[in-house]
Amino acid sequence: MEWPGHGTQSRPWSTRNRQGNRDDRTLNVIEVSVPPFIASLHCDPIGNTARVLEDAVIAVAHLEAGFGQHLAPLADFLLRSESVASSKIEQIDAGWRAFGKAVAGGKASDEARSQLAAVHALLALVEISSTGPVTLPAILQAHRLLMAADPYADSPGVLRTVQNWIGGSDFSPVGAVYVPPPPELVPELMDDLMAFAARSDLPILAQAAIAHAQFESIHPFTDGNGRIGRALISAILRRRGLTRRVTVPLTSAMLADTDHYFAQLTDYRKGAADQFIGYVAGAALHASQAAEETAARLAGLPARWRDTARPRANSADETLLDNLLDVPIFNADTAQQLTGTTDASTYKALNRLTEAGILEVLSTGMRNRIWAASDILVELDVLSATIGRRTRASRSMNRDEQN
């Protein structure tokens, strides 16, 4: 499959505040990357890429269709898993327990609030994609939600008006791994990308993969580009109808080897779109297969909880157990709303389920105590680890075949 590589342009550079070392201070010309316009380009993967693409689409469709009544809690579970993995790629990792405090409205760390903001951004972008094409206003709104947790965020929800770069110095593009296009080209490039993302005549996963790589190449914001760009994959899958309720947690495959992920993006900029499509398709394949295993384990949890707790019929304990898949992290107010009983009865039920090892106390303060279903927290880690293991094993096998 032919695909144009990025061009380059020389641009003048003026160092601000005379900061950095001598190389920073004397820099006066930079080479910026200029992505091609792609709105009308054709995308027809062939050979092994086409085969992986077909396998991935089947796996995603099977995940979407296969879990009946357990699909609703699975959808929420996968969306959180995808958002948190995306944050981890950006070195933002609060841990599931700290993240759980943020989910339930408790006092949380900056990292946990940032991860929760990533959930809100992904959810907003996916939901709006259920009703129509991904638009620039939707991207900007998702970015505002993402950056809401950062009081020092620079221009949330606004396309950048300054030159940015990836890697190298903090003060100039000296030694940068990648220098995106200059800010004056960003609006037109984003309009072109949105036109590409709105098309319905392209293979779905291929379209999502290229849209993500193009977004990362444009790097339209001063911060948050990676998380919004990966959310764009899920948004396109939803817009094209490949997913209707679930979010494929394919970012965990990228997290398994971030150096390889970034190298794939670099190769895309050289014209290797077919290769990047195969990479994203493989991530979707491994993620969907692992998520099916997770779904089966989640479906079996209520029966296991009942065997462990042996709740009385129509008791507060039984009601809480019946709702744990849908509401795995909650505070006392939510627990009482679920049980519909008094504070005393609710707290007794919570204490019994905690003693049984079904619930775990995330926040031990007298006010705003927070509980979580321990097994579900474990499953979040298991899912990410399983996707990573499948991804690494597949890469190793491919290398062996090439040798």
UniProtKB/TrEMBL annotation:
Residues 7-18 have a biased composition (Polar residues). PROSITE patterns: FIDO. The active site is at H219. Residues 134-282 form the Fido domain. Keywords: ATP-binding, Nucleotide-binding. Residues 1-24 are annotated as: Disordered. ATP binds at D223, G224, N225, G226, R227, I228, G229, R230. It comes from the Bacteria. GO terms for molecular function: ATP binding. InterPro entries: Fido, Fido-like_dom_sf, Fido_containing. PANTHER family: FIDO DOMAIN-CONTAINING PROTEIN (PTHR13504:SF38), FIDO DOMAIN-CONTAINING PROTEIN DDB_G0283145 (PTHR13504). This is Uncharacterized conserved protein. It comes from Mycolicibacterium gilvum (strain DSM 45189 / LMG 24558 / Spyr1).
